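Query form — protein Mg-protoporphyrin IX chelatase

QUESTION: What is the three-dimensional structure of this chain?
INPUT:
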Amino acid sequence: MVTENLKKFTTPVFPFTAIVGQEEMKLALQLNVIDPKIGGVMIMGDRGTGKSTTIRAIADLLPEIEIVKDDPFNSHKSDLDLMGNEVKKAIQNNQSLETEFIKIPMVDLPLGATEDRVCGTIDIEKALTEGIKAFEPGLLAKANRGILYVDEVNLLDDHLVDILLDSAASGWNTVEREGISIRHPARFVLVGSGNPEEGELRPQLLDRFGMHAEIRTVKDPTLRVKVVEERTSFDQNPMVWIENYETKQQELRDKLVAAQKLLPTVDIDYNLRIKISEVCSRLDVDGLRGDIVTNRAAKAHAAYHNRNKVTVNDISSIITLCLRHRLRKDPLESIDSGDKVSKVFKEVFEIED
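ANSWER: The C-alpha cells for Mg-protoporphyrin IX chelatase are given below.
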C-alpha cells in the first residue's frame, strides 16, 4: 500500500521500451548499464530529439539496489569498492548494518554547478574545533552506483568536466582542503548530452567518454506522427501507459540483469582482439583507450544477447560508437567519421558490402 501511494506522488517517467527510434543512443546506454567500466556515453544531437527522456527512462527501468540505510554514498553492504569509510569501520567492528532498497540514483548536474556542489565540501571550522572530519557530500556522492547526467556538457566548464571524467574512470572522489582529505566511492555511469551547434568538447575530453552516439531528427513523416501521438497519449494518461508497458519493461530489466551476471564469463578470441587493434591503428586513434573500450563494449553486447563468446557481429554493432569521436578531425575530409570507422572495419574484417 505504501508503495502504491508513493507511486502516485512520483513524476511518471516515459517507458524506455516505448521509445521509438534512436537505436544508437538506446544501445549505448544499455551496454553502459551492463558494464559501467565502458566509461559512459556522450550523446550529441539536435534539440528536441528525446535525449533527456531516454536517459531518465533507462534510470527508471533499472532494478532497485540495496544500500546501507541513511548512508550518503549509497554504500554497498559487502563490496569494498562501493562503500564509504564509515561503513567499512562498522564492518570491521562487527556492527550490524541496516539496509534498504532504493531506485538507482539518477543525478542531474545543473549547468551552473560549482566545484563544491559537485565534489562536496569539508567544514574546516568543525574539523578544527571538534577534531572530526565534517564532510558535506556533493553530487558525486549521490551518484555513486547510479547515473550522473550532464545536459549541455559542451557548455560546462572544462575543469568540472575533467573532475567528472576522473571520478568516472577511477570510481573515487577525493576532496582536499587545508591539509584535510576525504575520499569516497563515486562509481557511476556518466552520460553527457549536447547540441553540436553550441560547440564541441575538446578532443582530449571527448576521448575520455567510452561511447559517442549521434542522433538526428526523425525525417520519416509516419514515424514523426507516431512519436507525437505516443507522447501525447502518455501525457494524457501516464499511469495507464506505464501499466501497458510493464511486461516489456520487466523483460528488458531481466535481460540487463542476466547480461550483468553473464559478463564476467564472456570471452573474445585473440584474432578478433588483433583485428580491433588493427582498426584503431589504421584510423590513427591516439592511445589505447579505443582498443580497451571496443573490447569491453563487444563483450557487453555479447552478454546482452545471452552469449559468452564475442562474434564479428557484436564488434560490428558497437565499433562506430566506440571510435568515431577518437578520430582526428580533418576539415578537408568529406567522409563522416562514423562512415570512416565502418569502412576501415569492413576492410580489416574482410566484410563485403
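ADDITIONAL NOTE: The CA atoms of residues 116 and 277 lie 40 Å apart.
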